[in-house]
Amino acid sequence: MEAVARRKAAAYVCLSCTRQFQRHIRRQYHNAAPRPDIYDVVCVGGGPAGLSLLTALRANPVTSHLRVALVEAQDLSKVKSWKLPPSKYSNRCSSLTPTSAFYLDQIGAWEHLDQTRVQPYHEMQVWDGVTDARIEFDWAPGSALVEGTTIAYMNENLNLTSGLLKRLEQLGGVSVFEGAKVENITFGEETEDLDLRQWPVVHISGGKQLTARLLVGADGANSPVRAFAGIDAKGWDYNRHGVVATLEMEGEGWGGEHTKIAYQRFLPTGPVAMLPMPGKYSTLVWSTTPENASILKSLSPKDFVAMVNAAFRLSPVDLAFMHTQGANQDYEYSWRLQHTSFNPRAIPQTVVGVQEGTIASFPLKMRHADTYIGERVALVGDAAHTIHPLAGQGLNQGQGDVQSLAKTIEHAVTHGQDIGSIMSLESYVSERYTANHVLLGVVDKLHKLYSAESGPLVPLRSLGLNAVNALGPLKSFFMKQAAGSGTKLF
Amino acid sequence: MLPPSPLRQLAPTIARRVRNPRTIARLASTPQCFAPVTESPSVRTQRWHSNHNDSRPPSSSSVNPDEISHFNALAATWWDPHGSSRALHLMNPLRHDFIQTCRSSSPTSSFTVLTEDSGDELPSSSPDAPTYSTTANVQKLRYLDIGCGGGIFAESAARLPTTESVLAIDPSPGVLAIARSHAKKDPSLSPKLTYLSSTIESLPTLKPEAVEKKFDVVSCFEVIEHVDHPALFLDHVAKFVKPGGWLVMSTIARTWTSWFTTNFMAEDVLGIVPKGTHDWNKYINEYELRGYFEETEEKRRFWGQPRAMGVVYVPGLGWKEVPGSEKVGNYFLGVQRLASEDA
């Protein structure tokens, strides 16, 4: 038994740690106390942020000797073997900036994504639903400011997590505890020659206990790790829900297969966005009131499609009225459409269908943790911040966190610092907190600005949008910020 | 189980502290002060205590008792990331960067590796010889950290995968108690890190031929400015450096700028360094310290060309390397031992 344990330990740990273990085993043999199972990094949460962090640590030769564990409530083998036919798309998609994609490529994960399901887009059309002021984000041909043609990549979250899992499997060396719930997090104990009273101990279902030099909370908006660390998250609920669905369009888009366009219209109830997926498919993110969301979810597919088409074409007044009808939006839409003028090439093509079972909604909120670190604790992704989806930045912020934390850990390892100490983790917070805070604030203000139906803000915001549209360099600057390729402003 | 570290054999030594008059034999003011250091320490310094069963040559301590009590008082906040030693914590990564720069500047830094690989340099009589037989140990470094304080550098050196062992010594018992109790908080340290309440003078002198017991890196960070007789101190330290190994130091130049920043601003005005930590009169300029290693032909044969790196503390950003600032304020100095014979 001891020999087995030793061999197991040797598979993961450097020589000195192995010796340490052996010593533990020997001592524990006499004391008959349970031997703490010590990991350098215990990551709670196997979403995009957690998996990217572990991949980054395993892929880097400087940090690959660290003993790492993943605790995830879901069955990850299902995620890894996730597969859908080319005619079906998951309703949970994210926009990945070129910066995020580049990082995923650096850690060797990008090639494990199913590339036939990743859709780059090259233009953005954003307009005000009340005034129709418009800004067109496209890369002016020949412009000196053009750095790439792709603004971002639309991708199903499952394609990303599945790809990351495949990459992790290739790298090996992660102790994976899947289908394991975190039941409790406590502190370690003090023995004669070891003082683990500041080390988090993660108790998972089945009775196993993992002692962590650094406990990473990648465990989402209601992060148990954050609660354990006593870190508060402040913010507010928008009283809005994001309605998502996978839509089938009449064609591949006005730009064809090679120039895909993302659309977003600001309605008083919230922005509605249509983002291109491969082929004739698009994904919808419509933020609206919880009441409207439940109405939309209750509609027949035919009426739901009519409402989505209406959301990009009809006036906010018409749209509000259509929400009061129990059914027959389809008929109402075709009637009202005849009396509405618009440029069909400036809005998405007509939606012809919605994929069964893809209409869902989730509440929108803004949260920001007071800090991302504690003694032997670091938070990444949604555990640290939750953002309004209107700018498509949530997942990218998480990737930015991961890149920074992995760099921080690498620096700590090369300089002999304890990777769990506040001193080592400080640079992670200082690098990410302000950046995230500014983005959270900008997106929050945008949401509020466009929620106004009338009043002094409405003409002003149109003026702003039109002005930005007229000023090429400024627009280019915004696009680069959106694509994450611009000068690091934040 | 690790074989008993050769360092541990030093453990029973009890620190002997000698109350030296603070004023004599200051190296600081002129480089010429380095000249007489070839004399036996006992000639130049008064001995107040001696170890009763000591058969070794008499030795003194470079350490001032006032300094010891000052650092004892600081012990409690040593590891508080926002406490009195924050500036030291922030400086620590630069120490490793500097050592890295020094070691990579000279191919002979790997001296020990080459000889141990060939296997013919090890005295066959050495009881420790078998411990070097595993290839895993061959390239790892032995550190001696003099004036380790709460162990900020010693712990970090022990954590490096390239480290075989760290012997960390300090004469302040209160500070060392903090260091020991803090080291308990990291299970990876105990196999590599040994603390010893000792001055360098009271460490048993290693026989010149006991090369493998000497150290690849001997560090004294922020120490020389607290030492009463820096030249004697360095003479002593030299014996512990392995041929091909490096002696790395950091201290503060004695300039108006350093008085203003480290004494006036840091201690009196901003309070980021505890009052009484620095005695400006004991600061040593870079040319003075460099002078010690370059002064005589003998020294130049013994030591390589010293390397310096000036660093500046920028509030809110931490320490930054600023070329040329070694003449002004905080700086690192590293020097490689060339000679295989002890001076």
From TrEMBL, chain A:
Cofactors, names only: FAD
Reaction catalysed by this enzyme: a 2-methoxy-6-(all-trans-polyprenyl)phenol + 2 reduced [2Fe-2S]-[ferredoxin] + O2 + 2 H(+) = a 2-methoxy-6-(all-trans-polyprenyl)benzene-1,4-diol + 2 oxidized [2Fe-2S]-[ferredoxin] + H2O; a 4-hydroxy-3-(all-trans-polyprenyl)benzoate + 2 reduced [2Fe-2S]-[ferredoxin] + O2 + 2 H(+) = a 3,4-dihydroxy-5-(all-trans-polyprenyl)benzoate + 2 oxidized [2Fe-2S]-[ferredoxin] + H2O
This protein's name: Ubiquinone biosynthesis monooxygenase COQ6, mitochondrial
Enzyme Commission identifier(s): 1.14.15.45, 1.14.15.46
InterPro entries referenced in this protein's UniProt entry, alphabetically: FAD-bd (IPR002938), FAD/NAD-bd_sf (IPR036188), Ubi_Hdrlase_CS (IPR018168), UbiH/COQ6 (IPR010971), UbiH/COQ6_monooxygenase (IPR051205), UbQ_mOase_COQ6 (IPR000689)
Any matching Pfam family: FAD_binding_3
Pathway(s) this gene product operates in, as recorded in its UniProt entry: Cofactor biosynthesis; ubiquinone biosynthesis
FAD-binding domain residues: 39-433
This protein's GO CC annotations: extrinsic component of mitochondrial inner membrane; mitochondrion
Keywords recorded for this protein, A-Z: FAD, Flavoprotein, Membrane, Mitochondrion, Mitochondrion inner membrane, Monooxygenase, Oxidoreductase, Ubiquinone, Ubiquinone biosynthesis
TrEMBL record, chain B:
Gene Ontology molecular-function annotations: 3-demethylubiquinol 3-O-methyltransferase activity; 3-demethylubiquinone 3-O-methyltransferase activity; metal ion binding; polyprenyldihydroxybenzoate methyltransferase activity
Subunit structure: Component of a multi-subunit COQ enzyme complex, composed of at least COQ3, COQ4, COQ5, COQ6, COQ7 and COQ9.
SUPFAM superfamilies: S-adenosyl-L-methionine-dependent methyltransferases
Cofactor(s) this protein cannot do without: Mg(2+)
EC supergroup of this enzyme: transferase
Species of origin: Neurospora crassa (strain ATCC 24698 / 74-OR23-1A / CBS 708.71 / DSM 1257 / FGSC 987)
One Gene Ontology cellular component: mitochondrion
Annotated catalysed reactions: a 3,4-dihydroxy-5-(all-trans-polyprenyl)benzoate + S-adenosyl-L-methionine = a 4-hydroxy-3-methoxy-5-(all-trans-polyprenyl)benzoate + S-adenosyl-L-homocysteine + H(+); a 3-demethylubiquinone + S-adenosyl-L-methionine = a ubiquinone + S-adenosyl-L-homocysteine; a 3-demethylubiquinol + S-adenosyl-L-methionine = a ubiquinol + S-adenosyl-L-homocysteine + H(+)
Enzyme nomenclature, EC number: 2.1.1.64, 2.1.1.-, 2.1.1.114
Pathway linked to the protein: Cofactor biosynthesis; ubiquinone biosynthesis
Alphabetical UniProt keywords: Magnesium, Membrane, Metal-binding, Methyltransferase, Mitochondrion, Mitochondrion inner membrane, S-adenosyl-L-methionine, Transferase, Ubiquinone biosynthesis
Highest taxon of source: Eukaryota
Matches recorded under NCBIfam families: UbiG (TIGR01983)
Listed name of the protein: Ubiquinone biosynthesis O-methyltransferase, mitochondrial
Membrane association type: Peripheral membrane protein
Binding-site list for Mg(2+): E222, E225, H226
Summary of the function given for this chain in its UniProt record: O-methyltransferase required for two non-consecutive steps during ubiquinone biosynthesis. Catalyzes the 2 O-methylation of 3,4-dihydroxy-5-(all-trans-polyprenyl)benzoic acid into 4-hydroxy-3-methoxy-5-(all-trans-polyprenyl)benzoic acid. Also catalyzes the last step of ubiquinone biosynthesis by mediating methylation of 3-demethylubiquinone into ubiquinone. Also able to mediate the methylation of 3-demethylubiquinol into ubiquinol.
Localization in the cell: Mitochondrion inner membrane
Stored Gene3D superfamilies: Vaccinia Virus protein VP39
Protein residues bound to S-adenosyl-L-methionine: R95, G147, D170, F221
Family from the record: Belongs to the class I-like SAM-binding methyltransferase superfamily. UbiG/COQ3 family.
Region feature (Disordered): 29-66, 104-133
Transmembrane feature ranges: none
